[in-house]
Design a protein that fits this description.
The structure holds 2 protein chains of 2 kinds. Chain A is of the alpha+beta class. Chain A has helices spanning 18-29, 67-77, 84-103, 136-150, 216-223, 255-258, 278-281, 288-294, 310-322, 342-348, 350-360, 415-436, 446-457, 468-482, 489-508, 519-543, 561-564, 589-592; strands at residues 5-14, 34-37, 54-55, 118-119, 129-130, 154-156, 159-166, 172-179, 185-195, 228-229, 234-241, 262-264, 332-335, 369-378, 381-382, 396-398, 566-573, 576-583. In chain A, helix 3 crosses helix 12 (415-436) and helix 10 (342-348) packs across helix 11 (350-360). Chain B has 13 helices and 7 strands. In chain B, the strands form 2 sheets. Chain B has a 5-stranded mixed sheet. Classes of the chains: A alpha+beta, B alpha+beta.
Chain lengths: 600, 306
């Protein structure tokens, strides 16, 4: 495959969700020649599915709110495993990033006095989420997309990157991809590459994630020799649709609970009051009456347990269903109908109203929704330096869900959209600083390019017996059953075994047809990424012998102080996946003292 | 063109024992050089949408069947197609709303060139997007904030619900059968975008001449096909296109807008008063009842469009 299409840029950003768009905008504004490469059409990235809002201590509803409170909520929500510096930067910079979106045309819902309205969400002490009804992600991606177009960023749509290119020192100097439409390969030379490819939910059977969330960036980084961090930390969102089967896993926004919705079991009991862990007891309402008062009086009352962080709520729902107190289709009830008027529900939650009406024939203004946990978010990801988003490989940066560290072992709702714009910007800045400081890009290795393209084409010569769809289905079954919301050593070992077999089958899987827009071929290549990240998650989950945040071990319930201060680092060493425990960065005393005073 | 399935009568009772008969799916397969419909028999499953069935065919019989999709939740606007001739999102069209006694036909959007099978080349839309004069806000308040009343942004928020599925572009008569009009016509999606910018309380640009001369709004003869297919229920014609036409007519002559004003007795307005008026009226979700709606019922302008 010599003579492939070739483009040279200062900065190449892979992925065009919130983080990738924001990174590209920053790099372009800094004066770097910037390309944005995405495997879907522009504006279709998984960010559009974010519903509830973007967390930022704007203080427009509760003036008491500030970055320190947001920082504290974020760290406690992540069960203190977060990279403290990332959590600090995030809390400090999120308000400016949200206000900046308004400059690019975003229209957030307003307060009476015309400022940005904020809504309640789990784990946030004050109403903190700037939002647009329940379609905040769409608003954000559109504002960023329109900004990116207006400043003339070069966009390569429906172009999938399959390998990074590296100079002899190991520094990343480009990438190889292919056009989905034609199947033709394309090579990018770059002084810096930003990976902003999002999550990995498509390795699980029931997920909120869209088609493209196959762990591509994490795998590209891993193959290039970079570290991944805390890959065991997978968030299962407590409220996904459970019926009909084809809609199972689809997200039901936490905004339903933020706006007053409550969880009930088959017997009509608000069961969350039975699941208040000691870690959050001091800041959680003990009675239904207290919880209901909190929505309007946050000074004198504590928040209801339906708004505990997601890991707590997801585990509680899982327990209720297993105990036989679930709804007919294996979930629990999420009831907003008895809490708000139909007009309010349609105004506050228009997408949810439509989603249930059209996909499940359920009118949420009169009937409770059936919901259950669904794979939602990877807290772990590519290990980055907090201030610049530089990975452990020269020339390679990462931001958004593809990067790890910011959210510790559990992410608070609303902190993802803010993560994208805060760290997307910093990654764009970090990448452009490196690129603009270099006199010339290092020459690309024709051997690496040829290897990458030859490898991608092997699937057309394979004889199977499997096709990619069968292998993907079995991978999803494996991860769902063995590396799900509750884990145990024997099942994780079984998963590791099966992942080895699946990798073998995947490498031999046969692709039919030609290279033009061939989803079977695309899936075969996505499977490489999914298998890589699934291995890292399984290995990290085995190593973390405790339960923390999104990682719950049946055989090691509760925190273990020995694991409190370590991150799980996975990397490829001589072609083998390895995991090591490395010390977590320690926060300075002026921040540590925020946690000394007892919770409100 | 459209086959309207009535959801009330087509919600068939669930058979308890006998297996349901197979569905026949007729999917268009081919590329830019041509193609044909191919039939697949599939067993129906509870609660499925068209995209589920297409995926099942892809995973079993036709692994290289090209279909574009992302979220499967009606939020990304990727899986637009024509289902039994009716433009719709595959992920939001339940099989139970379609007649089962005849094959279900799925074909690619007609207004755009086919790439392969159900996937079309929608790059025209991305080219138009580059031509839109960007949002240009005025200065912030002294405390660094922008203040906007909710009532002044309700209409803009309606427009920003757009998921860019391009179904409105697909059905627009000006370009559906007239490829030659594309270079001088932005299409309904971008009139929605332009209306949003024009009505944005913070925006300072005047795009009226541009909307007429470059975006080609006068080609639109308000047949409302775009509004009918919008999966987000945006009142494209009444809330976006007609107000834009009215604004443009301040300095231009457009017979449809002129007729609209004759029927409603409205005087031409300045940009500032337009912003106030259209956002102020935004609470009326059924804005079709307004004077603008009357204009929409007027006969098409002579000599315009198809």
């Amino acid at each position: 495959m010599t003579g492939t299409e070739r483009h040279d840029f200062d900065v190449v950003v892979v992925g065009a969700g919130g983080a990738g768009l924001r990174a590209a905008i920053e790099a372009r504004q800094a004066g770097a020649r910037t390309a944005l490469v995405c495997k879907s059409l522009l504006g279709k990235a998984h960010t559009v599915m974010a519903e509830g809002g973007v967390a930022a201590a704007l203080g427009s509803v509760w003036p008491e709110d500030n970055w320190e409170v947001h920082f504290r909520d974020t760290m406690r929500g992540g069960k203190m495993l977060n990279n403290w510096r990332m959590a600090q930067i995030h809390a400090q910079e999120a308000p400016d990033r949200v206000l900046e979106l308004e400059e690019w045309g975003a229209l957030f819902d307003r307060t009476e006095d015309g400022r940005i309205l904020q809504r309640d969400f789990g784990g946030h002490r004050y109403a903190r989420l700037a939002h647009v009804g329940d379609r905040t992600g769409l608003e954000m991606i559109r504002a960023l997309q329109q900004r990116a177009v207006s400043i003339g960023i070069d966009v390569f749509m429906e172009c999938k990157v399959v390998r990074l290119l590296q100079d002899p020192s190991g520094a990343v100097n480009g990438a190889v991809g292919f056009w989905r439409e034609t199947g033709g390969f394309v090579t990018f030379g770059a002084k810096a590459v930003v990976l902003a490819t999002g999550g990995l939910g498509k390795a699980w059977k029931f997920t909120t994630n869209s088609w493209e969330c196959t762990g591509d960036g994490m795998a590209l980084a891993l193959w290039a020799g970079a570290d991944l961090i805390d890959m065991e930390a997978i968030q299962f969102h407590p409220t996904g649709m459970v019926w009909p089967p084809s809609a199972r896993g689809l997200l039901v926004t936490e905004g339903v609970r933020g706006d007053g919705g409550v969880l009930k079991n088959r017997d009509g009991e608000r069961f969350m009051f039975n699941y208040i862990s000691p870690f959050f007891a001091a800041e959680t309402a003990a009675t239904i009456e207290e919880g209901d008062h909190w929505y309007t009086n946050k000074a004198d009352y504590r928040r209801p347990p339906e708004l505990l962080p997601r890991d707590e709520v997801a585990r509680a729902i899982n327990t209720e269903v297993k105990a036989g107190r679930g709804s007919p289709h294996g979930g629990v009830y999420l009831d907003i109908a008895s809490r708000r008027t139909p007009e309010e529900i349609r105004r506050l939650l228009p997408s949810m109203y439509k989603q249930f009406k059209e996909l499940a024939d359920v009118d949420i203004t009169t009937t409770p929704m059936e919901v259950g946990p669904t794979c939602h978010y990877a807290m772990g990801g590519i290990r980055v330096e907090a201030d610049t988003e530089a990975t452990t490989i020269e020339g390679l940066f990462a931001a958004g869900e593809a990067a790890g560290g910011m959210h510790g072992s559990n992410r608070l709702g609303g902190n993802s959209l803010s993560d994208l714009i805060v760290f997307g910007r910093r990654a764009g800045l970090g990448a452009s600083e490196r690129a603009l400081g270099m006199t010339a890009a290092s020459p690309l290795s024709e051997t690496q390019i040829a290897d990458a393209t030859r490898h991608a084409m092997t699937y057309f010569d394979n004889e199977g017996p499997d096709g990619p769809y069968a292998v993907h289905r079995d991978l999803q079954e494996t991860m769902q059953a063995l590396v799900g919301i509750i884990r145990t050593e024997s099942e994780l070992l079984e998963a590791r075994e099966k992942l080895g077999e699946l990798a073998e089958r995947a490498s031999r899987c046969a692709v039919e047809g030609n290279i033009q827009f061939n989803p079977g071929w695309h899936l075969a290549l996505d499977l490489e990424s999914m298998l890589a990240v699934s291995n890292c998650t399984t290995l990290s989950a085995l190593e973390r012998r405790e339960s923390r945040g999104g990682h719950t071990r049946e055989d090691y319930p509760g925190f273990n102080p020995a694991f409190e201060n370590v991150n799980m680092i996975t990397r490829l060493v001589g072609g083998a996946y390895t995991v090591t425990q490395e010390p977590k960065p320690q926060m300075p005393s002026e921040l540590a003292k925020l946690f000394a005073e007892e919770a409100h | 063109m459209a086959i309207d399935a009535d959801p009330d009568t087509s919600a068939a009772p669930e058979p308890t024992q006998a297996p349901k008969p197979d569905l026949v799916m007729r999917l268009w397969r081919g590329d830019a050089s041509g193609g044909r419909f191919m039939e697949f028999r599939v067993a129906p499953q509870e609660g499925e949408v068209v995209l589920d069935v297409v995926h099942r065919i892809q995973a079993t019989e036709a692994p290289d069947l090209a279909v574009r999709w992302n979220c499967k939740a009606g939020k990304c606007g990727s899986c637009s197609a024509e289902i039994n001739g009716r433009p719709a999102l595959m992920c939001m069209t339940r099989m139970s709303t379609l007649p089962t006694d005849q094959p279900v036909t799925v074909s690619p959007m007609r207004a755009f060139p086919v790439m392969r099978d159900l996937v079309t080349d929608v790059s025209y839309n991305y080219e138009v997007a580059k031509l839109i004069p960007a949002f240009t806000p005025g200065p912030r308040d002294p405390d660094g904030l922008y203040r906007m009343a909710q009532v002044d942004i309700d209409r803009g928020q309606e427009f920003r619900k757009c998921i860019e599925c391009f179904l409105c572009q697909n059905v627009c008569h000006v370009i559906r059968d007239h490829e030659e009009n594309k270079p001088r016509y932005a299409g309904p999606r971008f009139f929605v975008r332009l209306a949003e910018l024009e009505m944005h309380p913070l925006d300072t640009l005047d795009r009226r001449d541009y909307i007429h001369e470059v975006m080609g709004i006068s080609y639109c003869n308000i047949t409302k096909c775009c509004t009918e297919v919008c999966p987000e229920d945006i009142h494209i014609t009444d809330n976006a296109i007609i107000p834009l036409k009215e604004r443009v007519v301040d300095s231009r002559y457009d017979p449809v807008a002129w007729l609209g004003r004759k029927l409603t007795g409205r005087p031409p307005r300045t940009k500032a008063s337009e912003a106030r008026k259209h956002t102020g009226a935004a609470h009326a979700q059924s804005a079709a009842a307004s004077g603008a709606g009357e204009a929409a019922k007027a006969p098409p302008a002579p000599g315009s469009g198809a």
